[in-house]
Amino acid sequence: MTRKSFYITTPIYYPSAKLHIGHAYCTTIADAVARFKRLTDHDVFFLTGSDEHGQKIQQKAQEGGVTPIAYVDKIVAGFQGLWQKLRISNDDFLRTTEKRHERVVQEIFRRIYEKGDIYKGKYKGLYCTPCESYWTERQLADGKCPDCGRAVAEVEEDAYFFKMSRYADRVLAYIEEHPDFIQPVSRRNEMINFIKQGLEDLCISRTSFDWGIPVPMAPDHVIYVWFDALTNYLTPIGFLDDPEKFEKYWPADIHLVGKEIVRFHSIIWPCILMALDLPLPKMVYGHGWLIVDGDKMSKSKGNVVDPVQLIDEFGADAIRYFLLREINLGQDGNFSRDALIGRINADLANDLGNLLHRTLNMIGKFQGGVVEKALGESEIDRAFLAEAENTIVAYEREMEEMKLQSAIKTAWAFISRANKYIDETMPWALAKDAAKKQTLTNTLYNLAESLRRISVLIEPFMPETAEKIWRQLGIEAEFAAVRFADVRTWGGFAAGTQVKTPEQLFPRIDVEAEEKPAEDRKKSPMEKPQTSQRKQKEQAAKKAEASDGIVTFDEFSRVDLRAAEILTAERVPDTEKLMRLTVSLGAEEREIVSGIAEFYAADELVGKKVVLVANLKPAKIRGIRSHGMILCTSSEDGLRLVEPAAPAGSKVK
Ligand code: MSP
Q1: Of 570, 562, 577, which is closest to residue 627 (Cα–Cα)?
Q2: What is d(CA 459, CA 453) in angstroms, rounded to the nearest whole number?
Q3: Quick check: 357 and 504 in contact, CB under 8 A?
Q4: Which ligand 1 atom is at minimum distance from the Cα of 269?
Q5: What CA–CA distance (Å, rounded) separates 442 from 427?
């Protein structure tokens, strides 16, 4: 059977400067979609590249005293390095300065000219150089470029025009008849309004600079950079030289673009394609913008976040996870270092990391590292397996609908569910009872199988971590060959597999060290915004103090919170919930009675670090003097210890 093809593109980025985290966001979305399509056995072509011509680049090169090509070569090498670091799986990288592209652009120009849809005239109008956009007086916002708010310049020159006005009605009809063509729907409405105001013919050549592809019939003109750029989508799929390939991938399934360039892709590009008698792309998806600590990124504000530095600090998968988990695709989303660290600690180190670690540890400890065959199932197993099935169905639907954030949430809900399954089944207790051997085997099998599934579900978002989990599970099959179909039915984990010793996936980030003054930390691109965010938090805390029913800072500081280490643990006889613990506070030992016996086995507790309310008034519980209280989180997963990374005795503030 021939596989269904799937063609997805990102915008081609201007090499006028290094890429920032907003660009990385766009490409990461496309990568996750491409990876999911490969998992579901599509023949995927994923394209990205660089948009290297135009006046702005020429100016930048002049300012730097180098030729335009030398200027872009250096920056584009940076793009390619970034995509490699970020594990972007593009099938081609198109540079508009390549010969293969120049041929395509000139041929398209020639074809449309010969058809009579390109004519020579005089251009007099307004141009925004940073956006490489033409505007009419009417379109300006307060006399400035409506996209970027910067000044526009008057230009007057001989130029070639594309008869876009001729296609306006057809494009409008197409948008109206194809509700999925422009996504999300808010962008679609914007575009309909834009066309209804009337489309003018588009000026597609310039003579005031020469950094561009020459007009074939008038080499003193260079082709307008957007005309050149949009056609990039046709070049690498064989438009001129490989009809079979072209047939396979065109029309594109998704042009993924930022919201401000939806207009180029859903109006100008369709007009060009109509003039060429080519089918239109199936979807133009306009994603929202990434802002940083609530502010638009800009050099002058000094808040431009460099993705390379972030990857070096936290790893590619953590950044990918954050971008895709935190931001709803159609809307603008916020990036902050605090939020990133919060997600790494809670979702990656804690939820995912612990599930893998606990599972492999128990398989090691109770079954010599071998996953044995499951036979039969309990009520608890049945409920858990039903959840696993629902997860697959919901996840697949959400990915098909481009709801990446929902799909990640679905995967993580299952990770939490698997952690809860451990608490429900208490394998450490089963291991003590020879009669429960098969129940223990079943539980550990189900956990290994869950992790096998999880590794596939997270592959589009975190490819490196997915493969690490796969390898730690000891699965022999090559991870690169795995398909979504392999996790559609339960039970694919081969019994008899020897798992590996667990290795930490994500170290927890020490938030206390992060909070130290900036000069103590490694210099980071996020320093300024973070400081201002801290200030905001302090102000918010002060405000909160003043309001009714809230503890003041002084009241709170009277609570002595300490990191402590559990030295011994034993159940309090004839109780279900109580555990008797001795804990070390570094210089001192305490006895504590804690209500956590339903959620932890005694031997699981020994050695754990906990947070202790050290100055709580001692109380007698079941005849035992309990001096202090241990902090836990309480959620649908039951009680979970708050586990600090600091040595016993450290103050928690
Ligand atoms: N070269 C054109 C695209 C031509 S496609 C035929 C261009 N380049 S760009 O480098 O300015 O922008 C590329 C993409 O990056 C756009 O889709 C834009 O929306 C996106 N982003 C730029 N800043 C962004 C954020 N802060 N957040 C998210 N995406 C952002 O336009």
Answers
A1: 562
A2: 10
A3: yes
A4: 6
A5: 10
Does the domain at 555-641 match CATH 2.40.50.140? Answer given as yes
Measure the CA–CA gap between 254 and 285, rounded to whole angstroms: 7
Dihedral sign from CA coordinates of 63, 301, 152, 13: positive
Out of 72, 228, 261, give the residue to mutate to test ligand 1, the one with the largest number of ligand atoms within 8 Å of its CB: 261
Say which amino acid occupies 437: K
In this structure, the residue with its CA closest to atom 15 of ligand 1 is 23
Ligand 1 within 6 A of 261 CB?
Answer: yes
CA nearest ligand 1 atom 12, residue: 13
Give, in order, the Cα–Cα distances in Å from 409 to each of 53, 397, 457.
41, 13, 11
- The whole-angstrom separation of Cα 239 and Cα 231 is 10
Handedness of CA 302, 306, 309, 310 (dihedral sign): positive
Residue ranges covered by each domain of the chain: 1-53+61-95+288-335, 337-498, 555-641
Q: Which CATH number is 1-53+61-95+288-335 given?
A: 3.40.50.620
Q: Does this chain's domain 1-53+61-95+288-335 share its CATH topology with 337-498?
A: no
CATH 3.40.50.2300 is held by the domain 337-498: no
Q: Centre a 10 Å sphere on the Cβ of residue 589 and count the other Cβ atoms it contains.
A: 14
pLDDT digits (tens, 9 = 90+) for 514-548: 665 444 444 444 443 344 444 454 454 444 444 44
- Nearest residue (CA) to ligand 1, atom 6: 230
Q: What share of the chain is helix, strand, coil (3-state, %, to 5)?
A: 45, 20, 35
Using DSSP's 3-state secondary structure scheme, residue 78 falls into helix
Per-residue model confidence as pLDDT tens digits over 251-271: 999 999 999 999 999 999 999
Contact 49 CB / ligand 1 (< 6 Å): no
Out of 26, 50, 255, give the residue to mutate to test ligand 1, the one with the largest number of ligand atoms within 8 Å of its CB. 26
Mean pLDDT of the residues in the chain: 91
Residue 92 tokens, joined? 């081609």
Q: Which residues are CB-neighbours of 58 under 8 A, at least 6 positions away?
A: 68, 209, 210, 211
Beta strand ranges found along 51-112 (DSSP E): 92-95
> pTM of the full predicted structure?
0.80
